[in-house]
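Troubleshooting: if your tokenizer reports a length mismatch, compare against these two reference records.
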Amino acid sequence: MVVNCKEVNWEDLGSGIKRRILASKGKMMSVEVSFSKGTVAAVHAHPHEQIGYILSGRFDFEMDGKKYELSIGDSYYAPPGVPHGAVALEEGSRILDIFTPQREDFLT
């Protein structure tokens, strides 16, 4: 599978968050998420493993009750069921998220 990101539409989730699914097959999924400055991705948990890579901007990131400041090039691993969330500190902050298994809820 090859995905040309220029051919993938952004989905506006409201409240300053947009996402686009870049690749989704088998048991894995990659998703690019864009945030407006000040946008809050509320602390949440899910049964998927997740790796995030900061593509641009900066975030106040929280995982399992601990807080971190993440910027371009930083990454994180969120195990299944572990609470995590973020606040975008700059306009156009973006994260590349990798999930396994796929987020079926993103595909509907």
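Reference record two:
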Amino acid sequence: MKVTFLSIGLMLLSTLSSGSVQAADTFVLPQGAGTKSGASWENALDASAGGLQKGWDAIAPGETCFVGGGEYKGVTLSVGGGGTEARYKKLVGVNRGGERPRLVGTWTKEMPAKGPDCITLKQGASFWSLENLDIRSYRNAVITSGGRHTGIRLLNIDVTGARAGMELAGGGLAAQPEIGTHDVVIQDCDFVNFTKRGIRFQGGNYKVRVVNCLADAGGKVWATEPFQMGFSVQGSQTSDKKATEASADHDITFVNCTANNSYNDAGAGYWNADGFVAESTPYNLRYENCKALDNTDGGWDDKSRNPVLINCVALRNKRNFRFWTTKGTATLTNCIGAFAVKRGGNSTGAGLWSKGNVRAENCTFHDNTINVDLDEPTARVELVRCIISSSKAKRGTPSTVEAGGQLTLTDTAVWEEGKNGDDPQFASTAWDGTGNGMDSRRYGKAKGYHSGFSASAGRVGARN
């Protein structure tokens, strides 16, 4: 009997030991499989019967809910609990049968304010990761309920057809900014065809990195409400005047992000809709190797304190770069604003528009209606080793300065084809924002934008 009990005990111990990792994880398929216990792909939970939520709720810190490829109609998920700093709780989409999991809702652009949200993040849920999902036709693909998260990862999530891709509330208070959402990474995500915004931060998010993300609003066809914005940092603004004042968003970095095709038809009025947006209370925003293309207002429309742009490209927006701050200075290094397009309404196009303080080094402003526009007496703009240029084909104004504004040019070249200055000899002006088409063959790396610049290493060949 002793031998028998010992044998049974060893068998149980062996079974628990060998199967503990797999048994801890859960598995979900659109219609489930086998016993539908969630213990394996062969016995996956049934998403059509609430299996996605069951799979998430069942896992503990350090465990994963795997979601197999296929279409998941009308599913929603409430993300609560979370893990620990050492043991994240994860939901991971898995390519099975040649496709990723597709979560498909019933939202439509014709009624943008109505419809289901796909993934809701409960207040305080921390140390979790959502990965490898396609989300389609939901009002909000990912939205927070109160914020106050620490250590969240949103990776390789593609959103198509939504009012908003991600709405992240910080939940920070003016008296307690530290409780706001922080330690956030959003990476390799695409937001395509939306009526309002790709990502919005509001109310005290900090220590955030947004990397390799695309926000393509879809242009006129998707502009069914005013107005589209690619990446938006709202800060402490709140629509509820009675609410306790929120803390500001700050220390947010965008790397290799692109914002395209935000559109707003305001008739004879001001056409809004921007690529990158920041309101007045955020601070320490940083943009590296980012692009804003074909938006009906600003490529960048930034009111924040001390934004930094490095190696950024703004093309064919009405106002490629637009800065307002008088409480700090917007700093641009190796940036280019070119080919501004006014698609309708009032106002004028510009390469660089300012109401506040801007310092730009080794930047190019080319073929804009106004290349450098100091639009208010409060504007103070300093251009160092820059190029301001206009071709005959798109002859614009080098600069305009509102009475009282101050424009300082230091070692900066000004060229108007056939009129004055030296031709910077751009390699090619048939340029889409990639390659060396707007490198100056006359000045090389000494003046203006140059494609050989590295945001991490600093200007190639720059003087100390």
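Descriptive notes for reference record two:
- The chain has two helices and 35 strands.
- The chain has a mean pLDDT of 92.
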